[in-house]
């Protein structure tokens, strides 16, 4: 064995040769299989997409619910409007005139209720700002039977005066059209009453307003 002492330069050269021997070749590096890399789904993105879809579904459900609720409200309003119209058509109101000035609402209500054997609501015409009677009232009945019985009281005495009981028309005012409408209704009804009963009396020709 050569025991000759190596110089520093020779030592570096020997060390370089040793490293080169230990280093794998390029082919050897390629021969080592690389670890397969599997792309992992972005959990954060998936979570975000899911939340967005859920929010969309919730908004759509809320909109559908609001739409159904609005439809129900519109339907309810329509039903109530029809009910009000039906109630207005079915109201039984008569004009009661030629009342004595000292006749009060309670007096007339009691008299009419006894005559028709039913409930009656009286609205007495009074001077604005006072309780002074204008000599007329409007009587409203629950059904047609009481309404017809009261109509036949036209001309009957009450508090020393003959009652003037007439049909009335909805609305207000003293227009010629409204007055004529009331007159026609009274004339038609009087004709029917005369045919159905010999004791029926016809009312005055003039119409009145409520």
TrEMBL record:
| Source domain of life | Eukaryota
* Residues spanning the membrane: none
Q: Where is the RRM domain?
A: 92-170
Q: Quote the biased-composition stretches of kind Basic residues, using this chain's numbering.
A: 70-79
Which PROSITE patterns does this chain map to?
A: RRM
Under InterPro entries, the record lists: Nucleotide-bd_a/b_plait_sf, RBD_domain_sf, RRM_dom
Bias class Polar residues marks the residues at: 42-52
Instruction: Supply the SUPFAM superfamilies for this chain.
Output: RNA-binding domain, RBD (SSF54928)
**Could you tell me the keywords of this UniProt record?**
Repeat, RNA-binding
Chain intervals with Basic and acidic residues compositional bias: 1-17, 24-33
Q: Protein name, please?
A: RRM domain-containing protein
């Amino acid at each position: 064995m050569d025991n000759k002492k190596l110089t520093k330069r020779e030592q570096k050269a020997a060390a370089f040769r040793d490293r080169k021997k230990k280093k794998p070749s390029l082919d050897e590096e390629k021969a080592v299989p690389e670890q397969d890399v599997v792309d992992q789904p972005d959990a954060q993105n998936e979570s975000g997409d899911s939340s967005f879809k859920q929010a969309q579904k919730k908004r759509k459900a809320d909109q559908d619910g609001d739409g159904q609720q609005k439809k129900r409200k519109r339907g309810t309003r329509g039903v109530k409007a029809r009910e009000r119209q039906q109630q207005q058509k079915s109201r039984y109101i008569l004009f009661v005139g030629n009342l004595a000035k000292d006749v009060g609402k309670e007096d007339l209500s009691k008299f009419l209720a006894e005559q028709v054997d039913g409930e009656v609501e009286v609205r007495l015409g009074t001077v604005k700002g006072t309780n002074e009677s204008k000599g007329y009232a409007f009587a409203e009945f629950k059904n047609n039977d009481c309404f017809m019985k009261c109509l036949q009281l036209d001309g009957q005495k009450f508090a020393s005066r003959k009652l003037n009981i007439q049909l009335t028309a909805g609305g207000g005012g003293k227009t010629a059209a409204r007055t004529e409408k009331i007159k026609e209704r009274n004339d038609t009804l009087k004709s029917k009453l005369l045919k159905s009963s010999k004791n029926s009396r016809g009312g005055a020709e003039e119409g009145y307003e409520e």
